[in-house]
Design goal:
Length: 87
């Protein structure tokens, strides 16, 4: 149980650090005479944009050919082949 909690704390800290660096949230303080207010702003649109960009990058990496049009790599007719045709 202790290892699980330690791992959970590390994962939460890593996500918080990533979110801070990517601009997903911002913390601001407003001090008045006798009190201090802390505001946490979360940019949901930025999180969605980054999630979509990550999904697109994962699709590019996962595609077998790496091309966007779905053709296998090297199957384009526009480039001449250096391999001679044999009868």
């Amino acid at each position: 149980m202790r290892k699980f909690l330690g791992t959970l704390v590390i994962v939460v800290a890593a996500i918080a650090a990533l979110g801070w660096m990517r601009g997903w949230f911002d913390i601001a303080t407003v001090s008045e005479e006798s009190e201090t207010n802390i505001e946490l702003r979360i940019d949901k649109d930025k999180i969605k944009q980054d999630a979509e960009a990550a999904k697109e990058k994962a699709r590019e990496i996962a595609s077998p050919s790496g091309s966007e049009n779905g053709e296998p790599a090297g199957s384009s007719d526009s480039e001449p082949s250096d391999i001679p045709d044999t009868p």
